[in-house]
Fold this protein.
Amino acid sequence: MTHPSPPMSLLAELTYLCPLRCPYCSNPTQLTKRNEELSTDQWKDILTQAADLGILQVHFSGGEPTIRSDLVELVKIAAHLNLYTNLITSGLLLTPDLLEKLAENGLDHIQLSFQDTLPEAADLLSGMRAVQPRKLQAAEDIKKAGFPLTLNFVVHRGNIERIEDMLALGYALGARRVEIAHIQYHGWALINRPALLPSLEQVQKAEALIAHMHKFYKNRMVIDHVTPDYYTDIPKPCMGGWGQRFLNVTPRGNVLPCHAAESIPNITVPSIKHASLAEIWNHSSLFSLFRGTEWMKEPCQSCDRKTIDWGGCRCQALALTGDAAHTDPVCHLSPHHERILAITQKEGQQAHSPSAQSFTYRTASFNSQS
Ligand code: SF4
Ligand code: FES
């Protein structure tokens, strides 16, 4: 029997706990309770299995992964297994002492998220007060500890006009890379889309600016720009193709081809508690469901882009058409493409800046925590 090629990256969602409450969070809207999270030994075993499977990179994420007191231990194991290690963090709980321990134990890279360049706008989006000075301090401490730094800005209607300032801030803080990432509308972000979606005019202006900024920062800082799905008509190869490059382990041990896959109804979600990572990657029904091209219907099946974008995003197809097996409606060939146009015309034209009242903030209480 032939097996699929091994995955390249593991997203290790250590916890869904987070001090912030961003309305664009891509975590599921039903969050795992603290007492359901995997133990340190379970995560160590997952990292060992990941290396055995051929995975090259592990991204420690959440929620906020620095909440886990075993983070340093897990980084140490991953580094020992020769995995490239990246920490995706809001920075609020990073201390010089923790950074020193992470450096000593082999952490390779840190990606620090920022909500905005303006302190009051950062507070509005994070649902927390006085967040910006703490993030600026975290960036300084990360650089002092010797880590390569990437800054991540999630872009929406309320901050898209400040992309030039975001890049300037990244450069001033010594970032090697700045990600300007338009929101992917899953989880909390989907609920909040009417308050977040930018207008076509805003997006076009931003794209022209970024093209100019690429030249301006050439050889000094890398700019990654994730274009907004809702304003293109050619889909992205979500996750590099379903079950082809990426797997995600959730705080309770579910193993997914993407972070939003649990939104798909009538699927059997594999768990690391009942099968190995290799069994799940090679044989589970979930990873096989949309792998390759056999599952595709028209127009994808006869399209010459089908092994380039793999039909786009399954979770977006589900959210916007009700069926994850449909062509991503972002595609101009999709029979549902007019839904995207209707959304951008209705939600993208609201001129006002978002306010706290316009958001449903990610819950901080997690239904029940223990
Ligand atoms: Fe991609 Fe399918 Fe659209 Fe072709 S028809 S561009 S494969 S989403
Ligand atoms: Fe699930 Fe795109 S987020 S396939």
Notes: The two ends are 44 Å apart (CA to CA). The chain is about 35% helix and 10% strand.
